[in-house]
Every structure is written in C-alpha cells, then in structure tokens.
Amino acid sequence: MQVPLDWLKQYVSWDLPTAKLADLINMTGLEVEAIESFEGRGGFADTVLATYVTPNRGDWLSMVGVAREVAAALDTGYRPPQPTGLHGSLPADTRYTVRIDDADLCPRYVGLLVTGVRIGPSPDWLANRVESAGVRSINNVVDITNFVMLELGQPLHAFDFAKLRGPGIVVRCARPGESIQTIDGKERALNRRDLVIADAEVPVAIAGVMGGLATEVGESTTRVLIESAHFRPLSVRHTAARHGMSTGASFRFERHVDPEGCLAAAWRAAELMVEVCGGRVECAAVDAYPNRPTPRVVSVRPARVNRVLGTDLSAKQMADCFRRLGMTVELADTIHIVVPSYRSDLEQEIDLIEEVARIHGYDSIAETLPRTETMAGRRLPPQRTTDLVRETLVASGLSEAWTFSLVAPDAIDRLALGADDPRQRAIAVSNPLTADASALRTMLAPCLLQVAERNARYRNTDLALFEVGRVYRPGTDGEGPTERRAVCILLTGRTGLTGWNVPAEASRADFYALKAIVESLTNELSGGDIAIRPAEGMPFRPGACAAVFWGDDEIGRFGALHPKVQSGYDLPNEVFLAEIDIEGFVGRPRPVPRYQPIPRFPDVTRDLALVLDHAITSAQVEGVIRAAGGPHLVQAEVFDVFEGAQVGAGKKSIAYSLRFRSPEGTLTDEQVSEAIDSICAALAAELGATLRA
To answer: What is the pLDDT of residues 634-678, one digit of tens each?
Structure first.
C-alpha cells in the first residue's frame, strides 16, 4: 500500500517529521518499508510511505483506514470524506434491477447509474492522487473508481450501461461452458465455483477480480453504472488463484472489505463523476442487501487484559483505547465492545487485548516476568511410538528420510497396484501450489523410491533408508478421510560391511536382511505377537513377498520390488521395500525388559533334520518345536534347507539346531533325549514330518 502524505493530510493532521510519523505508524503494526519521493503533473511533489499490510487487516488498504490508525495513535480526531448531499430524496431507479442468486458469496450489491458522462483525461489533481498511490492514470471515470478504492478501501467497477443486455444485473455462479473476455484481452474459461456479474444473457465481470471487455467504459460511453459490492474473501481468493490474476480489487476483497461501506463508496464515486465528468444522477441507488448482519459484540475482562499484558491499567483507560479506534464501548465490570464492520479481525477477547497493547503503546508496557504454572513435560503416546520406531531402525543401521505428504497424482500409479486397490484413491488437494504436490499420499513407498532415484542420479546407489510419517485414505460409507501413521523401509545396493576381503554378495541387501529388520521392529512394538507369512501382490515380486500379521490383522508387507515396477524408476540395483502400519501400536505400553543372570551351566546342542511337505513353513515347524520342546529349550534355529530327488517330489528337508539349557544344573543326555522324542512325536502328529536318514 502506497500512502502519499499530502493525500493523508486531507483526513488527519500531525506535527511530526516524516521519519517520526513512520515510526508511529510502525508502532500500530502497519509496517513502513520505505520512504519515497513522488513527482507528478504540474510540478506536484509529495512524499510516499511504502507500507506492508498483514493479511488480517484489510481496513489498512485505504487512506481513510491509515488515517484512522494515525489518529488513534496520536489521540486526535480524523476527517473522513463527507457526502455532499447529492443523493437527497431521489426517486427509485426503474431502469434496471439487481438480483443476487448467492447471498453467501455476495452479501451486498449496490448499483448506481450516472448519465451524461463525458469520458476524457483526468484533471491533474486526480491523476496525481492515483499515480502517487501507485496506480496508472487511464481516464477520468476509471481514475475515479480507483481513487475511491484507494480512499475508502471499497473496490468499484464502472460498466458502460448501454452495452448491458437485459433489464438488470444478476450476481450468480458461472454456468457450465461459460467464458468471458476480461479487460486485459484474455479469454477465460469459467467454472461453477467462479462468482460472476452477469446481464440477462452472459457474464460481464468476474466478481471481485476483473471486469469484462464487452462492457468496458470507452470514449463513446455516456451512461455509467457504478458497481459497489461486498464479496466473500474465500470466493475471490479461489477465483483469482485459479485464473492466475491479482488486481487491486481482488487484493482487497481477499482480505476484507467493509460491507457497510458499499453505498457510501458508490455515492462518493457518483459525486466525483458529476464534478469531473459532467454527469448527473437522476435516481437513487439500487441496494440489494438481503441479510444485513447484526453488529458483533465482544466482551473484555479488565483483569484478563492486565494479566496478559503485565499492565495495571484501569477499565476507563482500556475503554479509551477502544474509543480512539472508533468502537462503541459500554463500560461496566466487563467492557462490552461493538466491533465496527470494517474490523473483521476482532472476533474474541484476546484480539481486543492486542488492541489495548497497540494503542496504549508497546513501549509503555513495563517489563515483567510472567506468572505461570509449570509442569513436567512428557512425550505423548504417538511421539513415544515414533521415537521407538526411529531408535530401533537407526540401531539396525538405517538412515531416516523426510519427504512431503503431498505428491503428484501419478505417484501411486507407478507402483502398478491395480485399479481396485484402495491405495489408488488419493485425496486431491483443492488448491494445490504445484501439480507435483496436488494429492495426499496413500503410501510412503513412492516417496522413498523417489528419494532413492534422486540419490542414484548422484551415483549414491547403496541405501538403507526409512521414513516414519502419515498416510491418508479417503473415507468409506460416508465417513471422512482417515489419517494413519506408517513406517517404510528401503534397502538397495550394499548395506553391510565392505572391504577388500569381504565378498560383494555378503554385504548386498536381500530379502532376509529386510526380514530381520522388520522382525526386530515389530517385536519391539508388539512384544512378540507377530507372525510373518508368505504373500503375493504388487508392488512385490512373486515368491519374494511376505505379509506381517499382528494377531489376526495384516499390518504390512515387505519384499523385493517387482521388476515391472522397478523398471519405472532409474535404480541400478534390486530394491527391497517394506511398509508397516504402526497406528495400532500408539499408546500400547512398551514391553518391560526382564534381565536374567548369565547362565552358569553349559548348553546342550542337538541337530534335527526333518522331511516335510513343501507347503509347510518354517514358522509352523518352529511353533510345534517350541510348544513340545519343554522348559529347557532356549533356541531353535534353521541352518539348512534342501530340496531334491533324495527327499522326494513335493518334499523338502529343513535342518534345525536346537539348544537346551537349565538354570538349575547341567542337563543329562536322558533329559535332552526325552525333549527330542517329544518334539519328533509332535512334528509327526501335527505336520506329518519324518526324520531324515
């Protein structure tokens, strides 16, 4: 916002050097970024303050708004422009009507017709005013609409009334297939979210953003219809962003424009058109305001103000701060404030406490130590769970990666999951900043694969990564979207020890290295109630995929990436991937480690080679062994798997190393043999296993 001081003096007086005035304005919260000089027409010169306006203070985007703040800071009055009485008691205008089809997006629309207008260059005083505020002078009518916008903060638009088709103005959302050529000469396709100003047939302006070329004021214009309206900020923001447009009008409407100022701004523009353009006003304005809101009342407790600010102000001093800002005040035990319509940012008590601090002066508040209650901090259950995941995976030799939750819409497609897979249905972002970040991820895997691909471009092909983050899925049966925590692990290339005497294959990532990491993590989270079973499904290679079960629930899968999927990424080495849902572990008490003395007595080791059906898994065998092995069995470990003609078709041989130990004494051969016999009998009965000769 450019603030010319000569113009500002029309509404408020001060007796300060320019630098001091800038400091005073800075104290109100309106930041002065630079002090500049302006040279205009006819030898006119002025000093201009370049200010930065925060998004919540749309009232600062006007000369009157800045003057109001300066007057409050100086504790003096200000002089807003006064109506000349031109409108008087004019008859109602029957030449056109105004209809608002969507009062939520356009709560108020004022139309005022000025006839007998002569289009031409602006007088020097008007051109100097708008150009000193950073707006190019075009012609007298356009300059007047810009002048009023800069003065009062109310954007206006001027239609050539003769070019409007039909008897009136309709404020509505665009219809399918409609488009408009705006005054910048560009054809813009509209959609149903775009609010437009239309005549009886077609849109003639994009509401709050830009007018149409077909009804633009030109040299032949003699009748001007002034538009002064209030549009919802969110509607204007969406429309302006979608069309890639930013105008002085949209900049103000996106923040907030005073709905109670529409009529006054229309008459201010009409008065100037009569004065500058030789026009005349024959009828009253048409004012469509279907749902005038009641003024908002916010209460403030003086004790709360002093407690927050560390001050000792009286209720009367606080009320005086509010009155200086133009607010209506009712002073009692609690101060009741009628919030002005131009201050949309004042919604609750803490907002008004800030106003007391601004007007009383931050430099007038003494330094005090806040009186607060302290309490011991602690980690919340979700934080403790994610911390445990990080600690476990870092201890396994992995490095953590951080990626964005927003991904490209085709990121999941690269995993070839299939059209019926629920992970294919990503939630689209309604107003994305970029096309590559326009959907919420349903999996972490695509993000880590992109990280690996990016590393591979820099010849970093040996990776052991993990990420803990949230994934998002659309709801089902009318429910809202779900958000769950997950962890993804990626191994590729060499992930172990390397050296001149270490074979390359010994340090290369494989399915079993990933399985060991997954087991370590899930056992830490669950305390041991985890089962891993063979599975199939994209994006994993058949025969190299496993599912992780916690009780009866599948919580994730891991395996080698399918060649079809890997071919879509620029990765030189085979990739091993795991993704586990950890939401169910949040809040679950961490298993308490139980320490035992170092064994005093030796182990007894026995090997057991079994012949079983090929479909029987090692987990099934181990379960039977542990159940039948008795209290002295401390370990059962596979050390050999064999398939061939020697064991028969459809059969396989699995060899186990079994360790027995007692804390009470050295085990005898009879005790161990008894346990082995029990194990063999159970394996034969439950799995049909036989001892290999």
So the answer is: 999 999 998 888 888 889 999 999 999 998 899 999 999 999 999
Distance CA(222)–CA(216), nearest Å, equals 12
What mean pLDDT is predicted for residues 488-515? 80
> Exposed/middle/buried for 509, CB within 10 Å: 0-12, 13-18, 19+?
buried
SS3 572: coil
3-state SS, one letter per residue, for 420-446: CCHHHCCEECCCCCCHHHCEECCCCHH
Distance CA 10, CA 261 (A): 19
Contact (CB, 8 A) for 143 and 137: yes
Q: What is the pLDDT of residues 130-142, one digit of tens each?
A: 999 999 999 999 9
The pair of structure tokens assigned to 571 is 């990765």
- Kindly state the average pLDDT of the residues 524-529: 81
- What domains can you pick out in the chain, each with its CATH number? 2-74 (3.30.56.10), 97-288 (3.50.40.10), 297-364 (3.30.56.10), 381-585 (3.30.930.10), 604-691 (3.30.70.380)
Helix/strand/coil (H/E/C) assignment for every residue in 90-157: CCCCCCCEEEECCCCCCCEEEEEEEECCCCCCCCHHHHHHHHHCCCCCCCHHHHHHHHHHHHHCCCEE
The answer to whether residues 262 and 270 touch, using CB atoms and an 8 Å cutoff, is no
Whether the Cβ atoms of residue 329 and residue 335 lie closer than 8 Å to each other: yes
CA torsion 348-351-352-357 (nearest 10°) is 160
Please tell me the total number of residues recorded for the chain in this structure: 693
Alpha-helix residue ranges (DSSP H) falling in 278-348: 302-309, 315-324
Q: Specify the pTM.
A: 0.63
Which tokens in the block code for residue 491? 């191994």
Angle between helices 63-74 and 140-152 (to 10 degrees): 30
3-state secondary structure (DSSP) of residue 556: strand
